[in-house]
Specification:
The protein has about 450 residues and is of the alpha+beta class. Helices cover about 20% and strands about 30% of the residues.
Length: about 450
């Protein structure tokens, strides 16, 4: 085993960033059989890391006897949980210089020419857009001499198509390149990373049964007409649903995970979390999994110790938060729906009012107002530390908020839960006054 391979087995990092200006390449060489002349040749393996992507293994073989050579690339990581599809609008010649990692499991398409390279028909490669076109042209030209002699008409059509592929390198007209890889390990460079690339679209998808068989993730004798995962409530409870969206910060393609969670002694809630790989932005939100209750709910807790900060709390998007001792009242739109602890809610309130308040930050903030908000933040910190006893009230007209009762199923002596009839104004805010759920199909 080579020294680099031994270091890799021990868990030490041997991957280097891929750069054309790097002179310190450390490739592992080994003797191997040439499949062209069956003499001894040399295979070189290089462990490298592609920026904004992942680790790969670049393999190169050369034979001094017959001058035959071959290069391919393999992923150094595992098969991803989802497949990936890159759609690139090639608009200018600089786009042809984008680096591309195309695994052998990827399908390459150019819709404008109705051209497709099926999966597992080419070895994995590390190239550019121009390199992919050259490789496609070379593959079509490979048997043209024999084809010309056997069937001149077919050879003529292939020659005409080859000329169309060659013209794409001039980029006289915009064309689309699609690389779809069920293993999730292919890659198309974004030269503006970590900013969004308007010409490049990245989407994730769930593999089909056939694709899982091709990747060796499923037995070949499994039926391909297997029923897809159910969309009933029991199935949704047991799995995390993923759907594509855009990052609210940089607008880059991202994925949102959604899960149904049963909260003890309460009801179901929908937890949604979005993570952007481009800018690192993370956000989570909680929505009620049930209908609007017939009555509103007001939960009042007397915070008497620091241990109260560990209580689980569900604040729906329609809930108002009040702390009478601080004369604080936050409306339903101030803080989004959250499933957190009491400490987490108070921390979000402090950050919202003190740290993230755009009217008091920077040089334009008034010193008196900034001092008052600083003192307010210190009071919140005292509440979190258990040094200040206050009441916190969760007033939810929709009745979908919850605060953990640590004495459950017995009553909590520090907490009161009150059900009340909503006012007309509260129903108006919830959109219930104009909602008709019975007899809505009747014609006046």
């Amino acid at each position: 085993m080579s020294a680099i391979a031994q270091e890799h087995v021990r868990g030490e990092s041997v991957f280097k960033d891929l750069s054309a200006d790097d002179d310190e390449w450390q490739a592992t060489e080994m003797a191997s059989l040439c499949m062209n002349c069956y003499q001894d040749g040399v295979t070189r393996l290089l462990l490298t890391k592609i920026p904004f992507f992942k680790e790969v293994i670049v393999s190169s073989f050369s034979c001094d006897k017959c001058s035959w050579s071959n290069t391919e690339i393999q992923s150094a990581g595992r098969i991803q949980e989802q497949g990936v599809c890159y759609t690139l609008k090639v608009r200018s010649k600089p786009d042809l210089d984008r680096e591309v990692v195309k695994m052998d499991s990827a399908t390459t398409r150019i819709p404008e020419l109705d051209f497709e390279i099926p999966p597992f028909t080419q070895k994995g490669s590390l190239s550019t857009i121009e390199g992919l076109l050259d490789r496609a042209v070379a593959g079509l030209e490979q048997d043209q001499v024999a084809r010309q002699a056997a069937d001149p008409e077919v050879a003529g059509k292939i020659n005409a198509f080859i000329q169309k592929l060659k013209k794409l390198k001039d980029v006289q007209e915009e064309f689309t390149l699609v690389i779809e890889d069920p293993s999730g390990n292919s890659f198309v460079e974004n030269p503006m990373a970590p900013r969004k690339d308007e010409a490049l679209t990245v989407s994730r998808f769930r593999r089909s049964v056939r694709q899982e068989k091709q990747l060796g993730l499923r037995a070949d004798d499994d039926p391909e007409d297997e029923e897809p995962p159910g969309d009933d409530l029991d199935t949704m409870r047991s799995e995390v649903l993923v759907f594509n969206t855009n990052c609210p910060e940089c607008n880059a393609p991202a994925s949102t995970n959604m899960k149904l969670v049963q909260i003890p002694h309460f009801k179901e809630a929908v937890i949604m979390a979005t993570n952007c790989d481009s800018c690192g932005h993370r956000t989570n939100e909680v929505k009620s999994g049930g209908a609007t209750e017939e009555k509103g709910t007001k939960i009042s807790l007397r915070i008497s110790a620091a241990s109260d900060m560990t209580r689980d709390l569900l604040k729906s998007e329609t809930c108002n938060v009040l702390i009478p001792e601080l004369e604080l009242e936050l409306g339903m739109g101030a803080v989004c729906g959250k499933f957190t602890t009491l400490e987490g809610l108070l921390t979000d309130i402090r950050d919202l009012i003190v740290s993230k308040n755009p009217f008091v930050c920077g040089d334009s903030g008034e010193s008196d107002r900034m001092q008052k908000l600083k003192e307010f933040g210190e009071k919140i910190d005292k509440i979190i530390a258990g040094e200040m006893k206050v009441h916190i009230i969760l007033d939810d007209p929709a009745g979908n908020s919850y605060l953990e009762n640590v004495y459950a199923p017995e009553a909590d002596p520090e907490m009161t839960v009150e059900k009340y009839t909503r006012s007309f104004e509260q129903n108006e805010e919830l959109g219930l006054n104009d909602m008709k759920t019975e007899g809505y199909q009747e014609v006046n």
